[in-house]
Amino acid sequence: MNHKIRNILIGHEYPKNSKNPYFNISNKYNIKIDFKPFIKLEAINIDLHKNNFTLYKFTAVIFASKISIDYFFQYCKKINYNVNIDTKYFCKTESIALYLKKYIKYRKRKIFFNKELVYNFENLIAKYSNELYLYPCSNTCNDIMLNNIINYGCQIKKVIMYKNLKMDLSYIKKNEYDIVAVFTPKSVIALLESFPDIGKTKIKIASFGNKTHNTVINAGLTIDIKAPTNLLPSMTMAIDYYIRNIC
């Protein structure tokens, strides 16, 4: 197949699963795909008792990302806390909800997720306004969702459990790549700080998530590959579609 894409840079850690869809794209089109994280995550030392509350009081937890799941359960393990079996989990997407299987037995009656790409996550949570919610997140989380939930009359406590730190990407030779994929607003900022002239190159920008899209656009860049959409719910599907049908 004749296409113009030869090298792709994915702003993620190298996949641990050998069956990762990116490897399928690489083999299918004979494309070189590199994985380099644009940001790194670091746990924050917190003492919930100093804030005059304890985990056992909460009846529900809100997860906006898989990373927040990791840090929440790592913290619970650190303090030897066994999460109550009746705790409810509210996840922004089905993919995040399924990731809970890494830590708990998946029980549909206590795991809820948004079933539409047009996010009505706050409305879902509002249906269970009697719960006492815990919201583990990063130092760069957006409080819009949090404030909307509070406006619905829900009780919620935000706990910053980890922080995003920008990586120095200046060692990367940007001209080697035809596509660069970004997944968070912070990763866009890291990319721009290392390559402020990237908008003047022929590199195609692949962007994941509305917040990331907005950061890319506000930086004056063009989004060439966008995910998720109704037809292309993952970045790998969006990149595959672009290679097959556009470039």
Tell me about this structure:
The protein is α/β, with parallel strands linked by helices. The chain folds into 2 domains: 111 residues, Rossmann fold; 123 residues, 3-Layer(aba) Sandwich (Rossmann fold), CATH 3.40.50. The chain contains 8 helices and 11 strands. The strands form 2 sheets. It has a 6-stranded mixed β-sheet. A 5-stranded parallel β-sheet has the order 2-1-9-10-11, with helices on both faces. The longest helix has 13 residues. The radius of gyration is 20 Å and the shape is elongated. The chain starts with 6 loop residues before the first strand and ends with a helix. 28% of the residues are buried.
Question: Which parts are unreliable, with pLDDT below 50 for 5 consecutive residues or more?
Answer: none
Would you identify the CATH architecture of the largest domain? 3-Layer(aba) Sandwich
Total strands: the figure is 11
- What's the structural domain tally? 2
Element string (H = helix, E = strand): EHEEEHEHEHEHEEHEHEH
Q: Which class do the helix and strand fractions yield?
A: alpha/beta
What Rg, in angstroms, do the CA atoms define? 20 Å
> Strand-residue fraction?
15-25%
DSSP helix count? 8
Largest sheet report: 6 strands, mixed
CATH topology of the largest domain: Rossmann fold
CATH class of the largest domain: Alpha Beta
Q: State the helical fraction.
A: 25-40%
Short description:
It is built from eight helices and eleven strands.
Q: Keywords for this structure?
A:
single chain, 247 residues, alpha/beta, Rossmann fold, 2 domains, six-stranded mixed beta sheet, five-stranded parallel beta sheet, 8 helices, 11 strands, 22% strand, elongated
